[in-house]
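Dear H.,

Thanks for agreeing to be a second pair of eyes. The structure we're designing against is below in token form, covering all 463 positions.
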């Protein structure tokens, strides 16, 4: 095993060329950040994949290390992986689609949708709402918390067995955390998946497939326990859960164990999807472009409910990412951590950039890689020059979420607003303000075109 680790300790980045690459200075900077992350996790994480998109401009895609350690197989950028808790974004979008259609209500008690026999073991179950499940403020405990000392061994030995939902819920009854208190628990999303099944009459997996996966053409996204196509195999060392001991002598601390086919039932509604970086970004773009739910409910997902005390905060099924502890929010998405896998998905509205990354080990610090990428791209992209002209104009507030004012001494001019893909989304003459509330988040280019002379250009950020 040490020999296998040596193979990827010195792994260099592999990549495929796409239609358009970023400028060379951006490529070099991203390569350096990615390689640094690979080096920092060498000896622990066999393989890595990453994709960064600036729609209409460029795509950056890389892989490093091993998809499989025995027999050795190199990681490729297009490979699938278990997305872990990024699944929660899919489940959340499904719930909000049902809210939009009137089948579910945001503030409704879960007893409206779920049988008493399933939920009466929860403290204050009468007051737990759909809203509190989405924000992890239901007070429901994490069912895995009592198994951390032996769970990896138990899952490894019984990885083909499905764990009944009743058992997962039963293990969540103990040690309530208090209604209204933030406590991250997969059990919240077990219940949301059951609500989907209850109101649609079909399985949660089938509903998400027909309502999200198939319409978006996510051909590398599914719920299979045994993955298909090309994929990263997932690994853990026997020492991953050192507290509490393990059954039958347990696993060897320094040995690497394959968890690729671990039971998906642990992740029901919370961490049971397979995908790749390209599909995840396609999903995220559809979400932020208004293809899946309307702007009001997307804004609800993005609402900051709890500062979690690390590099982020939690809203309703969505994480807000921060560039430093307590700092401003720069992006929206979710992290993922499952047996053998760690992943990340983020959209950065101010830069109109999407990031998806993964590795085939659990909890590998990708939030730090993502933060470094944001800080690097923010310095690069935010400094792009604007064509000002001899007569200037101002846009305020910038960024904005609803209406912006245009201040200029010009008269007889035309206002044209283009999105990041170069599409004209607004055109009007002599307007002193614009309503931008209906536009998706991102960076827009505003042209102020006088009847005579060169147009003036400024960039505008829609939050």
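And this is the sequence the design step returned. I haven't edited it by hand at all.
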């Amino acid at each position: 095993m040490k020999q296998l680790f040596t193979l990827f300790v010195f792994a260099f980045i592999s990549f495929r060329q796409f239609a358009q690459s970023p400028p060379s200075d951006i490529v070099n900077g991203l390569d350096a950040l990615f390689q640094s992350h690979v080096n920092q996790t060498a000896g622990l994480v066999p393989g890595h994949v990453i994709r960064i998109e600036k729609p209409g401009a460029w795509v950056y895609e890389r892989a490093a290390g091993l998809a499989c350690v025995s027999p050795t197989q190199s990681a490729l950028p297009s490979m699938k992986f278990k997305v872990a808790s990024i699944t929660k974004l899919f489940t959340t979008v499904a719930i909000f689609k049902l809210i939009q259609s009137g089948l579910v209500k945001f503030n409704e008690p879960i007893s409206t949708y779920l049988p008493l026999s399933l939920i009466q073991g929860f403290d204050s179950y009468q007051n737990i709402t759909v809203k509190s499940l989405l924000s992890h403020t239901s007070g429901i405990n994490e069912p895995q918390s009592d198994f951390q000392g032996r769970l990896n061994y138990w899952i490894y030995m019984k990885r083909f067995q499905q764990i009944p939902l009743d058992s997962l819920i039963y293990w969540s009854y103990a040690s309530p955390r208090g209604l209204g208190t933030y406590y991250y628990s997969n059990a919240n999303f077990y219940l949301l998946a059951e609500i989907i099944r209850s109101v649609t009459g079909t399985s949660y997996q089938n509903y998400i497939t027909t309502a999200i996966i198939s319409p978006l053409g996510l051909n590398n996204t599914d719920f299979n326990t045994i993955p298909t196509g090309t994929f990263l195999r997932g690994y853990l060392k026997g020492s991953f859960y050192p507290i509490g001991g393990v059954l039958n002598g347990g696993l060897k601390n320094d040995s690497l164990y394959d968890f690729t086919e671990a039971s998906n039932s642990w992740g029901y509604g919370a961490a049971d999807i397979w995908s790749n970086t390209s599909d995840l970004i396609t999903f995220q773009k559809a979400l932020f472009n208004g293809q899946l739910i309307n702007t009001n409910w997307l804004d609800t997902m993005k609402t900051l409910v709890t500062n979690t005390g690390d590099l982020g905060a939690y809203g309703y099924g969505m994480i807000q990412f921060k560039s430093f502890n307590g700092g401003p929010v720069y992006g929206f998405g979710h992290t993922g951590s499952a047996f053998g896998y760690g992943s990340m998905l983020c959209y950065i509205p101010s830069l109109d950039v999407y990031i998806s990354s993964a590795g085939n080990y659990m909890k590998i610090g990708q939030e730090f890689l993502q933060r470094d990428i944001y800080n690097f791209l923010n310095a690069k992209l935010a400094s792009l020059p604007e064509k000002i002209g001899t007569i200037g104009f101002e846009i305020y507030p910038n960024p904005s979420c609803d209406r912006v004012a245009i201040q200029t001494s010009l008269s007889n001019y035309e206002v044209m607003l283009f999105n990041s893909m170069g599409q004209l989304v607004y055109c009007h003459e002599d307007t002193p303000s614009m309503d931008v509330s209906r536009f998706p988040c991102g960076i827009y280019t505003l042209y102020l075109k006088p009847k005579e002379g060169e147009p003036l250009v400024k960039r505008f950020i829609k939050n």
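Two observations from my side: The chain has two domains: 81-380, 393-462. The first strand starts at residue 47 and ends at 54.

Warmly,
E.
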